[in-house]
């Protein structure tokens, strides 16, 4: 067993061998093994030993740099298992994780009250801060000359910006002159893990992708002061660009992420090389009536019951986003799921299952907080009005089947931006990069490369 402790990569056979013991085998190659029982289950992962942080960091980044292995990591079991610091218990904990792949981060330097205990983090990506003392993620010795190479090195990174510890993953390589592409997730609070896991392998063929978790989302920290203002989130993107040391970024904003992408592009037009808006929110006065009309078409009885509920308790008038939300909330739980499948996923249940498979507990814990904060701040009345400042080449993508952000509203956006092109995905709902990932990657890559 001791020989396994120093290994950064190992495979764990969870079946009991013929002699009644658990099988451990150091192996960085194929899944085949002479000791592998026919009915065994295997995990590919890393057991992190802080005694050798440089080897740990190298092993982690090597694992995460491979798109296929990172895609597999994205569907890993996501739970925190507390265990006594002994290897037999660790094996048992790993056996109980019902996932093909897990990553374990094992800490020995714990406070006295927790001495002798550790945490196994079985999660995709969200563990590097506790391991390897950030050897490759945020190097205090970095100079302006090497900061770009350090911050944009393949793998997972943690960095403190504007008083918040952020998490992002870098993957893929791009031709010289192509800016890094930052994915701005929706939700609010959804995190970028699903995009990295399911669309990343397609996007990384010819692009350097940055999968960035916004404040309070995914594996990034919640701000201590719970500041989720749009202006603060925009400033976070600029701080990230400065950390990269790159003059320009390409931005992909999905759903709520489009709000941040548009606001950033308007505030820092010279820092954006390309802008891609994907099923994005931009003007509730344009988009909410379209959503309400779509709801009325698909659920006429529920619409009739709720459409008269336009007066608030204080006498003010609800806007159509509020009316749509309240009528939707009037659906039964089962019908609400069916409605989401019909309007968000383009009736493709496989896409819904894939998205659910990579939605971590962190999204559930943090996502609700940031989502509530943004909505309570008036997102149902949001309007982006600085259209003339978005002067960079822009691609507006819409899913034809999207009922959450109907394509008609995005077509209007494209018509009002100075240098925009509209593209509609016929077989997609709210997540074109999940419904049609190969086409999505090809279209975005071609757009970025043709407008350099």
Q: What does this protein structure show overall?
A:
This protein has 452 residues and is of the alpha/beta class. It folds into 2 domains: 2-133, no CATH class; 134-283 and 380-450, Rossmann fold (3-Layer(aba) Sandwich), CATH 3.40.50.1820. The chain is 39% helix and 18% strand. The chain has 18 helices and 15 strands. The chain has helices at residues 2-5, 53-65, 67-73, 87-96, 144-151, 193-198, 200-203, 230-244, 256-267, 284-298, 300-306, 320-329, 333-343, 349-357, 361-376, 407-416, 432-435, 437-450, and strands spanning 10-16, 22-25, 42-45, 47-48, 79-84, 104-105, 117-122, 155-161, 164-171, 181-184, 209-213, 249-254, 272-278, 394-399, 420-425. The strands form 4 sheets. Strands 8-9-11-10-12-13-14-15 form an 8-stranded mixed sheet, with helices on both faces. Strands 2-1-3 form a 3-stranded antiparallel sheet, covered by helices on one side. A two-stranded parallel sheet has the order 4-6. A hairpin with a 2-residue loop joins β8 and β9 (164-171). α10 (284-298) runs parallel beside α12 and α11 (300-306) packs across α12 (320-329). The longest helix is centred in the C-terminal third of the chain and has 16 residues, at 361-376. The N and C termini lie far apart (54 Å).
